[in-house]
Structure formats: C-alpha cells, structure tokens
Amino acid sequence: MIERIKRIAARLTEVYGEQQPKWPEDPLDVLVLTVLSQATTDANRDRAFQSFKEAFPTYDLVMAASAEEIARAIMSGGLAWQKAPRIKAILARLKEERGDYSLGFLASMDDEGAMDYLQSLPGIGPKSAACILLFAFGRPIFPVDTHIHRVASRLELVTDNATPEKTQAKIQSLVPPELVYSFHLNLIEHGRRVCKAQRPRCDECCLFDECPVHRDGAPGSS
Ligand code: SF4
Question: Which domains, and CATH codes, for the chain?
C-alpha cells in the first residue's frame, strides 16, 4: 500500500506541483485560521481572518472585546456566533494554563501529546489539531478533510465507510513523513478540481488507472 501511495502522490505532484511549506509567524494565528475555516471556503476564511486581525491587532485586544464584537469582525467566515466564543474560550484557557497567548509550548511536546492537548481545546477536533501541527509546526501529521476522505475512499486507500477520523489515522500510518505536506494539499486540490463529490471527472483524471471505482462505474455518472 505504501508503494501505491507513493505512486499516487507522484502522479498528483506531476499535475499540481510540489507544494512548498509556508510557515506563518504565529502558531496561534494558525489556530484561529483553523477555527475560522470550519464549514466555509478558503476565501471566506481568509476574509474573516484579515478583518479579525484588523479589528484586533493583539490577542489582549481580542480578550478585551465582547463575543459580539469578535463575531462582527469574523462575520464573513460564517458561523460567527459559534466561532467567536470558541476563539475567546481557547485564549482564556491558554492564558489561565500557560500564562500567555501562545502555542509555543507545543514545540517541546511529542506528536501524540500535542494532538491530545489541541483536541482538549473547545471546538478543536482531530482534523483541526492535525492542521495546526502541520501548518504551524511543520509536523508530518496528515489532516483529513471531506475532499481527502472522499478521494481516499474512492481510491480504496481506506474502506468506503470509514469515518474521517479513521481515515486520518489510517492515512497517517501509510504516508511517508516527507510526502505529507504536498500530498495533503494535492489530494485536496484533486478533490476540488477533478474528483468532485458529484460527477467526478474520471475521464480526465491522472489517477484513472489507479482507481478501483471503475470496476462498478464512476460515482454520480448514472
Ligand atoms: S478516477 Fe474518478 S473516482 Fe477515481 S480518483 Fe479519479 S476522479 Fe476520482
């Protein structure tokens, strides 16, 4: 299976390129971005984050604001009334437990400890925790979103009825660490552009000969 994963990753790299890590300055910003990304598009997430940073240049200012003021600043990201108190609760936890608005302490934790800590924060599940460790700390932890879950199921890298959490654990055990970053982003791109939820464009798919879906006909094609 690992050889097959390498072949699939190489095909995707040929089409979408080798994705280069771009680490942001502050892991806490990545956490906020991850919260803002829940149930919305990348464009709306980025708009909400920009407006959030303009309204609150420091995390002290976020904590001094009401949940309503924060919600107004992140409105373009959707679910603002859920996300605003969530962000505030996370910041309050960090201040109380660590004395600072920072995630720097995660750098000295092992992967399992860091995943457990992040998932203990309000609204942070396995996918969000993996995103924070991958994008803020460069750890080879593989987040599984709906696109990856769908493409991986169709390619039978995981069983069709596996939950996203099980898919994440399975893919984590299969993907060589050096491939995680680029393979993760390229699988999402492939899911968005070609292996769409409805009517996947199998005829133009670079993974056509790797995909068992054709045994039973393409999903959504009938
Ligand atoms: S062949 Fe079709 S179902 Fe299989 S990965 Fe490509 S687009 Fe998805």
Answer: 2-19+143-213 (1.10.1670.10), 27-137 (1.10.340.30)
